[in-house]
Amino acid sequence: MTFDYQIAVIGGGSGGLTVAAGAASFGAKVALIERKTELGGDCLHYGCMPSKALIQAAKEVKESAKYAEWTEDEYKKLFKSAMERVADALQDVQEHDSKDRFINLGIDIYEAEGTFLDEHTLQVGEKTITAKRFVIATGSSPAIPPIDGLEEVDYLTNETIFSLNQKPSSMVVIGGGVIGVELAQAMSRLGVDVTMIEGSEQILSKEDKEIASLSQRLLSEELNILTNAKAERVEKNGDQVHIHYKKDGAPNSITADTILVAAGRKANIGSLGLDKAGIVTEKGSIQVDATLRTNKKHIYAVGDCNGSMPFTHVAGMEGKIAVSNAVLGLSRKASYEKIPWVVYSNPEIYHLGLTEEEAQEKYGEDLLTFKTKLADNDRFMAERKKEGLVKVLTTDRGKIVGAHAIGEGAGEWMQEVGTVQALNKKFQSISNVVHPYPAKNNVVSQTADLYWREKLFGSKWNDLIRWYVKKWR
Q1: In terms of DSSP bridges, do strands 140-142 and 224-226 run parallel, antiparallel, or are they unpaired?
Q2: C-alpha 468 chain-centroid distance
Q3: pTM above 0.85, yes or no
Q4: Over the stretch 326-369, which tens digit does the pLDDT of each residue have?
């Protein structure tokens, strides 16, 4: 059978663009199907880029507020300026994912929805195309919880909050995950009275409990956090919204100018016609094996739509694996044990591998835990950023199984641990690296030094060393 394309990529986000560019570079004839007018996906338009621009602007407002008391009118101006800054940042980054770049690679771009007619045929707008292989990279969108009355009010999500041009006086954030925490703190620092409603016992439930607990305590100094709470009903109250919720089983309510729904993500697969292609789904996502293949061996799925890890860098990693498998016929497998992520709150949270709770369950007495408080590090003491912690989890021989930190810029200086783990080196090897003083990553070296203290000075070897020194040195 003759096909129009060797590879058809559905979705123009991080994963899809990686596949399309890679496949074209390998000489494949490629179709890229994107329903929106611009490439870049959720990260560029609604996620990573706008949120980080907003977070930085809000951080600067917070820092300057130490030296001046802003009036409400001044906060309104600062809010508008922050939103303009977000728009400028998006415009700058959009140029990197311009359509011309991909057209110049020889890729045919279709600006339409793609729907399978069968396992080799797509309906793309008014056209029909065929492909020998497909890579689905349709991403995800905000999950909307079943709250009575929610559809009748003008709520915000991460897809709409960056279009605000006027500062709300108050906001209720439903959800205490990564998106909820980052945006809630940014809004609070821009002068919005923020209340967060989280159903679990603490926010950031996927983080190490000790790290999440410290984050919650610090965030509580900037906004109101309600845990063990669930929003049950919302209703219009003039120009505001009235939210009825239960906390610890007791009913209560709160009124705010607006609601931000940050209650998780759902895979964008509803309009793909997966049943016509015979593609199996599981728990609302496309089911793939370790090589990122679906049950149809010529169809792959990468990024949020396959339910793995909802991060842009993961989609990019999966895209690289999928393109080598689909185009070159390899069988490379995706591994997630060495993939870190960062919560870009202030202070930042770095997460790699197992939490202490997970590692304790898996390794038991063979687990070693090394912790250093930022208050014990000269650089953080000097900058008065002492609230924070480094925690590294290893096996008895030093294999890194988890690494976590909360602190100013943790996403940057903790990656040294991730690099060591990715290179299959032991944690204690960091002690052999000379760190410039007083760089922030000295706190990582301090923590690595604890391994030797545990192994040498807290073991039978210490007695032997003391005997040797006393007798022979």
Answers
A1: unpaired
A2: 51
A3: yes
A4: 999 999 999 999 999 999 999 999 999 999 999 999 999 999 99
**Roughly what angle, to the nearest 10 degrees, separates helices 178-189 and 48-64?**
40
Closest CA to 55 of 99, 89, 9, 92: 89
- Is the distance from CB of 368 to CB of 454 less than 8 angstroms? yes
DSSP state letters, 342-353: EE-SSSEEEEEE
SS3 265: strand
Which of 29, 5, 35, 37 lies closest to 128, judged by CA? Answer: 5
Alpha-carbon span 150 to 261, nearest angstrom? 10
How many residues belong to the chain? 473
Who's near 392: CB < 8 A, 6+ residues apart?
369, 370, 371, 400, 402, 403, 404, 417, 427, 447, 448
Q: Is the pLDDT of residue 453 over 90?
A: no
Q: Across residues 109-136, what is the average pLDDT?
A: 97
Residue 462 predicted with pLDDT over 90: no
Report residue 433 CA to chain centroid gap: 29
Q: Which of 294, 431, 288, 454 is nearest to 370 (CA)?
A: 454
Burial 205-218 (b: 16+ CB within 10 A, else e): eebbebbbbbbbeb
Q: Is 312 exposed, middle or buried (0-12, 13-18, 19+ CB in 10 A)?
A: buried
Render pLDDT for 156-200 as a digit per residue (tens, 0 to 9): 999 999 999 899 999 999 999 999 999 999 999 999 999 999 999
Dump pLDDT digits (tens) for 199-212. 999 999 999 999 99
Closest CA to 212 of 181, 189, 187, 188: 181
Write out pLDDT tens, residues 71-119.
Answer: 999 999 999 999 999 988 888 777 666 899 999 999 999 999 999 999 9
pLDDT at 131: 98
pLDDT of residue 253: 97
Q: Are 51 and 182 in contact (CB under 8 A)?
A: yes
> Measured over all CA atoms, what is the biggest interatomic distance in the chain, rounded to whole angstroms?
89
Token couple for 223: 């906004």
Q: In angstroms, rounded to a whole number, what is the distance separating the alpha carbons of residues 240 and 171?
A: 10
What is the C-alpha separation between 374 and 372, in angstroms, rounded? 6
DSSP letters of 87-101? HHHHHHHHGGG-HHH
pLDDT bucket at 39, cuts 50 / 70 / 90: confident
Beta strands in 219-344 (DSSP E): 224-226, 229-237, 240-247, 250-256, 258-261, 265-267, 281-282, 285-286, 299-301, 340-343
Question: DSSP letter string over 306-319?
Answer: GTS---HHHHHHHH
